[in-house]
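Obj.: predict assembly geometry.
Materials: sequence records (below).
Method: joint structure prediction, all chains together.
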Amino acid sequence: MTGNTLGERFLVLSFGESHGRCVGVVIDGCPAGLPLSMEDIQRELDLRRPGLSLVTTKRYEEDKVELLSGVFDGYTTGAPICALIWNKDVDSRPYEKMRKTPRPGHADLTAFLKYGGYNDWRGGGRFSGRITATFLMAGAIAKKLIRHTLGMEVIAYSIEIGGIKAKELSDNKIKRLRYSNEVRCADLEAAEKMKMKIMEELSKGDSVGGIVECKVLNVPIGLGEPVFSSLESDLSKALFSIPAVKGIEFGIGFGASRLKGSECNDPFSVKEGKVVTLTNRAGGILGGISNGMPIVLRLSFKPTPSIRKPQKTIHLDTLEEVDLIVPGRHDPCIVPRAVPVVEGMVACVMADHSLRAGQIPPIIKR
Amino acid sequence: MTGNTLGERFLVLSFGESHGRCVGVVIDGCPAGLPLSMEDIQRELDLRRPGLSLVTTKRYEEDKVELLSGVFDGYTTGAPICALIWNKDVDSRPYEKMRKTPRPGHADLTAFLKYGGYNDWRGGGRFSGRITATFLMAGAIAKKLIRHTLGMEVIAYSIEIGGIKAKELSDNKIKRLRYSNEVRCADLEAAEKMKMKIMEELSKGDSVGGIVECKVLNVPIGLGEPVFSSLESDLSKALFSIPAVKGIEFGIGFGASRLKGSECNDPFSVKEGKVVTLTNRAGGILGGISNGMPIVLRLSFKPTPSIRKPQKTIHLDTLEEVDLIVPGRHDPCIVPRAVPVVEGMVACVMADHSLRAGQIPPIIKR
Amino acid sequence: MTGNTLGERFLVLSFGESHGRCVGVVIDGCPAGLPLSMEDIQRELDLRRPGLSLVTTKRYEEDKVELLSGVFDGYTTGAPICALIWNKDVDSRPYEKMRKTPRPGHADLTAFLKYGGYNDWRGGGRFSGRITATFLMAGAIAKKLIRHTLGMEVIAYSIEIGGIKAKELSDNKIKRLRYSNEVRCADLEAAEKMKMKIMEELSKGDSVGGIVECKVLNVPIGLGEPVFSSLESDLSKALFSIPAVKGIEFGIGFGASRLKGSECNDPFSVKEGKVVTLTNRAGGILGGISNGMPIVLRLSFKPTPSIRKPQKTIHLDTLEEVDLIVPGRHDPCIVPRAVPVVEGMVACVMADHSLRAGQIPPIIKR
Amino acid sequence: MTGNTLGERFLVLSFGESHGRCVGVVIDGCPAGLPLSMEDIQRELDLRRPGLSLVTTKRYEEDKVELLSGVFDGYTTGAPICALIWNKDVDSRPYEKMRKTPRPGHADLTAFLKYGGYNDWRGGGRFSGRITATFLMAGAIAKKLIRHTLGMEVIAYSIEIGGIKAKELSDNKIKRLRYSNEVRCADLEAAEKMKMKIMEELSKGDSVGGIVECKVLNVPIGLGEPVFSSLESDLSKALFSIPAVKGIEFGIGFGASRLKGSECNDPFSVKEGKVVTLTNRAGGILGGISNGMPIVLRLSFKPTPSIRKPQKTIHLDTLEEVDLIVPGRHDPCIVPRAVPVVEGMVACVMADHSLRAGQIPPIIKR
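Observations (raw structure tokens):
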């Protein structure tokens, strides 16, 4: 398999560049018979669309999805599904100037060296945040698939931005409130503070990072293929594809290293005839396999590397140190727009593993 | 690909069970011409061998590696390499009793349900820590390959156990001291305290977790295949295959969420004619691609789930709650034995990506 | 991997339907730095375009390729390349009538059953000959890659149509003449007879089959990954994806079963300092690995299943036997249009194996 | 994926060398709950065991299978199954002499060049016919799986050897008689002539080729994943891994090129409530998908390249032409021993595709 493909049975192939003609995705392996409309995909895309507010980047893109194949008469056909959005609001001039002065914290230098200078550098090319729109399109289809066939639900939300933490809330509250504000945080009080923190750092020409939590609800028991395709393995692989992610933890996560075994093990019990655990420090996964409890994971996002403050870099031709001021339009905080992307990538992995475990049939009956 | 395979070009297939005939591994894709002896593998295996001391489990296994194929006249041939160790010191009786009462924190229940009760439950079967010996055998070959061809080195070491933290040390000190003590910690003072902490909890019938840090030195620029096979993606996928890992972070990791962009970006500079970064908060990876700086990652390990304290579980036939006391021999702390396993898995990924990026040729010339 | 992907390192993903919005392809794994223009692809597409003459189908499609990604400033970037052609001249009405009466020799019935009736049946959907345009687009890029980097050349041509056989000709003559006539046969006398045979059967409402031979010239020694990814294995896998292929043979092929060992073995010799074989009954492949001699293979194509003569089929609702007359526009012989498609698929496999064997670097230097 | 792996969900990884310690195989992806004993595998191995008679090679190997993993209490566990046979009757001296004079018709030269001389040349190493024992072991498990769950049956048999053709027989006769004689031919009269032909050529120091036919009975409708993983594609890929195969055809095969459409199409009809075709020129596959009719394919085998007659080759050091007389023990005809190997490889592909199409569940219920 090559670098731009993800998944074994719900295969996602992402293509396109930030300032090229389009960004798109092909999904191969989606079963026949899933009701699917453009609206199913558009709804998700709209959640990350730039240009919505002061909080996010000012680049404006309509980002209207087109479905090129694999759907017929409102249902998936079992053939590959190609979906894309065209690039329209493109101004590559600021990038022209920076070509020889790689931006700190960005992939400019590594991409240049890996591809011998042939990479499309305009707007970050393949390394632009815009590529996550292709993750969202695939994720929208995966979400529909796992919800329609298994009732699974994926919810992500900001729990920390710029050092401001949200308080814990019930799943229902999270479901209802997470998209009600620009920072995608269900704790509305914290959301307001996060927004102010972002605006404050933006005014200083700086940026902030944060933490996104994600849960999967109604997970069937038995997903995950040990030993190398455990759920944790495949979820982390997919999620580290999102730019700016620097860490991931499941359940108790890094806290586990400070607990004793007697505190960390989740006791088994029975509830309504089903085996459950009384706590969920495992985050819904034991031995790499889902145990029926909600899957819980957290992702650390670094602050947007594009800032207006001057930074030290070098000129690729002269190898002299230069001061760089990154021009253009940028999110002062990636986290809010990453939230639906996290949901999408998690949904892709859950769809893939549901198919691998035989939980979703090759044809979805009407 | 199936669940027991890892890698694209340096393919690792793990097989065997804890109390079956053997645990073994086949590597397909190792280039021809690599000098390889049984000692290269035995040395690594010896680093995780149980029964060495009070600190680790009392099961005694000689764990003598056998090379069944793929090596001829002291060199790899380009054909698949099969290596295995036979199981000898096996007593399955304690597990017989626990069959219907899944151990909290273990894969007993999920394995039982996923495989319809057909799984080999003796000693945890495929979910035993003993399976990591197969990771080590593959890792030993990968280590040899990347060191011999590219001079790459992988070093892992405990930095926290049972809440006791080691201080930061130079790479040279770490290389020299990490295997000098039973807890695999280069800070000898902390090592002593960690050991005492482990003994203390063992005496109470409990267990502790910890954190392992791993660095890769002398990494060529350009490893990693965006967007879905980034180095972070493939390293995390491989490392979550190690039982008890609950979190991973690269470079600044979860700390990134509390920094500003101006603090988090690594400024570029030039040193001895090569582009470097003045700090390494990125952990050696930008845009999913190695930037030539050391790769730095940390893993959180939960405490050993097998403890002597009574725990709540249920009986699978009656679904009644029962108290379980886990018998048998167990590590009070997994971390020390996990250290060489982490090195092995990281080496496998680095070997795979070095091959994918064309940094290692298909034939290694004498 | 899923059903619509081919190749390990030069990955081809085909999408689209005959009467949907487009047919397209994504290639992932093409090295950076290959000069590539739309003309490179258009030239190949034009060789199979329908509507050129009486001999082929009358459906008219402009088939103008669009390059959506992966090429920048005239060179490949190392990112996925998406190419597609839009569907324009589409009339789905004849297929509407036949929906419940599967056409003998076609995939109507098997596609209906495999996909539970959700498949796009218009114009054969994914099973239309039009899908081979996606093979051609991928093949055009593969051809350019292996010619530009290794000087490899792929030539296919008709050697038998409707029972009329061409005589053997030199590679040079074949290169020059194979596309000079509508039946893609380098023996011009035979070509004329083949054409007349096709017209004769067309006038009777019938169709004919034939044999295509393909050679690969200037093949480097050492391509092919034993034991399961031998060159023969991967070439045959790719070529059986072309609709209507019912047999393949390499070198002496089915004739081998009637020879003695002493007649069949190719003696080794030396020519201009290089090891060669004096004959080429092996078809350029020994032990699954290229030996530097031209690769030679032949494919048997069945006659076009769409004929105007009445045929027996059944009605899917009533399960009663009915007589079917297939309406619409169809090739009376698939072979001529298949010729460039064979070249394309062979080129894809040669590109994939050249990359796997390390014969093509990850960056093509200017 | 690497060269020594086959299949997507029923993954076969072959390892070992002719004169190394063993030849073996790991299968990953076999569902849990399949009853499996060593006898199931031994029975198949015995069908190709050398040393049985004058007709086949005189090397004697007991070839007693050992099951190292994946089977517990008589059932598969869902974990990888490792099976191997140890090499015992090994005399590598004759090969020592031939190291620098590659045998015509063998992989000696291509293997030497591909692996830079590091390949294990003893007895042909990875290119020995003995490697097909690993295909048989995998095939035995696949056969059991598809018969136990779906009632599918795979039967192969010689239909031509040294120019002597068998007559067509009923499936029942073939099932009963094909293994009743040393040439694996169900037409007993022809079998006798084939045997005499082989002995005659053996006495002259020569060898003969032949044709094997294979049928799969009770195939469920809907196996095969278009467009690139059609049944024909994956069967041919697997079968070209068998040494000496030079051609494959399905159903009417190469004969298709001489038929008209009206003669070649199989008319649909209904029999006992099921859709069938009145003829089976398609060989059970339409559009790459099984149509429920028996799958029928034929393979051309070249004569054994190892003959006692002197042959022309070159010396690798001096590049001078030399006469070579191949010493050692060799089959004068590969075909009889290839027959069970063909069955095994076909079974592996049918198992893989049955899993891919969801026809075999992940757990086989008692």
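Conclusions so far: The mean pLDDT of chain D is 94.
To do: check interface contacts against the pulldown list.
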